[in-house]
Design brief:
The chain has 336 residues and is α/β, with parallel strands linked by helices. It contains twelve helices and twelve strands. Helix 1 runs parallel beside helix 10 and helix 7 (187-199) packs across helix 8.
């Protein structure tokens, strides 16, 4: 298959999903170094292109908007006129195979979702959700390459670590909150984490994106009421892009965050990272690596992790997120 010159990859989801997908694209580029890769993704995740040079072009397809089917037809049109040699698509929907067949691209790869996928795809790949998400996506290209990229890689220059720094990014996406997916501790607990780290002599940096405004404001207010509002470095609003945040993560000795996109940036940079996990499955969302540690409640919930596994929203009791500031700080100080 050395005559592959143009590859279309399709992966819908948030920015975290696109970072998970990077090892797949990197391996494709290694196998077909002269090929141009176009990634079809949701507009909200387009900033992934700022982190890598393996993506040559983007197709922005708003599958979450009101005109979902029009957007999918737009994708089919772009694919048919793009003269692609190969298409690879993630997603476990049974209609993905039909979508790929409609593109007219001869070599089509996706997950095995039944007889339709087996008939319409060049190869229907078994879908194994019980593994690290990067590995799950990477399975898609096993029929075309023996290359294996285990972790995301991003093009951020190596930074000199700033001694004794702990960077905290407490928020999660607004979309997850709106959908009832509570995945992190309360903002006042985060304020207590900042306070304890300061008392332990750490240089604390607080960062966040536009979705984190309410959380950051609560942390600021709580610390100001204690007279500690000036004792941490406030970088909220100073990181104007995902790349800016990546550079800040690269400079920090330790990074503490929620289960959100910045986590996956930190994994790509191999920064020493601690992640709050509640209802989601840490084994699927972080690699088995010594530089990243999940921080979890000892709640003994019989169905934990439940989000996506058993339910689409989190429960009301949220016992899995009854994590104290002391729990977080003690885990950090004993593991660093």
């Amino acid at each position: 298959m050395r005559n592959i010159e143009k590859i279309l990859a399709i992966n819908f989801g948030g920015i975290g999903d696109e970072i998970f997908f990077l090892p797949t694209l990197i391996s494709l580029k290694k196998e077909f170094p002269n090929a141009k890769i176009t990634l079809a993704l949701e507009p909200r995740s387009k900033s992934v292109k700022d982190l890598t040079d393996v993506i040559d072009n983007l197709f922005l397809i708003d599958v979450k908007g009101k005109n979902k089917y029009f957007e999918l037809l737009k994708l089919v049109f772009k694919a048919r006129t793009g003269k692609f040699d190969m298409v690879i698509s993630s997603g476990g929907n049974k209609m993905i195979a039909l979508l790929l067949a409609m593109t007219g691209i001869k070599k089509r790869y996706g997950y095995d979702t039944g007889k339709l996928s087996q008939k319409l795809l060049t190869t229907a790949v078994p879908l194994n959700k019980n593994q690290y998400a990067c590995a799950m996506y990477h399975d898609l290209i096993t029929p075309v390459t023996g290359e294996k990229t285990l972790l995301p890689q991003i093009n951020v220059a190596q930074q000199e670590k700033v001694k004794n720094t702990v960077l905290i990014h407490p928020g999660v996406s607004r979309l997850s909150v709106q959908k009832g997916m509570i995945k992190t501790i309360d903002a006042k607990i985060w304020a207590n984490v900042v306070d304890l780290l300061i008392k332990k002599g750490k240089r604390v940096i607080l960062a966040g994106g536009p979705d984190d405004a309410q959380c950051i404001e609560t942390i600021r207010k709580t610390l100001a009421e204690r007279g500690h509002g000036h004792m941490f470095e406030d970088y909220y609003g100073k990181t104007k892009s995902l790349r800016d945040l990546a550079e800040l993560i690269a400079k920090s000795e330790v990074f503490i965050c929620s289960d959100s996109a910045p986590l996956h940036v930190a994994v790509a940079l191999k920064t020493r990272t601690f992640v709050i996990f509640g209802p989601t499955d840490d084994k699927k969302l972080i690699p088995a690596a010594d530089f990243v540690t999940p921080v979890k409640a000892n709640d003994k919930c019989p169905i934990k992790p439940c989000l996506w596994e058993h339910r689409q929203t989190t429960c009301e009791t949220l016992d899995c997120l009854k994590i104290t500031a002391e729990d977080v700080v003690n885990t950090v100080l004993t593991r660093v």
